[in-house]
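Problem statement: downstream parser choked on a complex file, so we are re-checking the raw output for the GEK run. The parser issue turned out to be on our end (a line-ending mismatch), but while we're here, posting the original submission so the record is complete.
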Amino acid sequence: MKDLGPDTLFASPLDRVNDFAFDEAVARVFPDMIQRSVPGYTTIIPMIGLLTERYAQNDTRCYDLGCSLGASTLAMRHGLAGKRASIVAVDNSPAMIERCAHYIELNNEQAPVQLVCEDIRNIAFEACSVVTLNFTLQFLPVENRAPLLTRIADALVPGGVLILSEKLRFADEEQNEQQELHWLYKRANGYSDLEIAQKRSAIEKVLLPETLATHQQRLQDAGFARSFVWYQCFNFVSMLAIK
Ligand code: GEK
């Protein structure tokens, strides 16, 4: 396994910018990439631990869907200390899962973690109390989102929660303001205009943001009793949906 490094994937001019994929090259620089690209990420991760501590129930499972290298998984594991519950962490990128396994091994929290390399649209859910989609739903085709949320809501025990973090789109002029602020965030974190532009064209067909209203309506339709935003930084938001 090669060392983790700084994200320079889009630093040089590319003849052709391919669609973004969670491959080996991305997995290698992922912690640096996500921290410098997603405003609020470093706050959200430990809060996922707190939310897990509050909502996880004994004798249930917790799911981390789109676990990448396991940052959210390990926060959930910390939140499960002293509880009789286990984690199923799922990602369909072999490069991510391979590295995630390494981090889980190095971590000495107690809760059992099962790593699954699979598409989250294909897994069968067992009775669960906390499900995390930390910046993962946004990568699914839009038509696949409601069926997944319905299956999650069906599997959650009463009082169970979904932690849903997403990049947002805004229906009005707030879109331009928030997007500019996001680019400013990336520039402040050392990305050049070329990197920002090339990453943007790589990701625009792959990451499909929706409005907050669309998310809230879909959560309600899926069977959640209520949902609210517990964190927002620019156009990145994290919601809690309670069954
Ligand atoms: C974190 N939660 O560090 N099935 C399974 N995995 C998928 C699918 C799918 N259909 N689509 C995308 N992924 C993490 C960060 S990253 C967010 C999550 C980002 C996976 C994909 O392979 C990647 O690892 C992850 O979802 C999204 O808290 O890169 O912006």
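For whoever reads this later: The longest strand covers residues 156-167.
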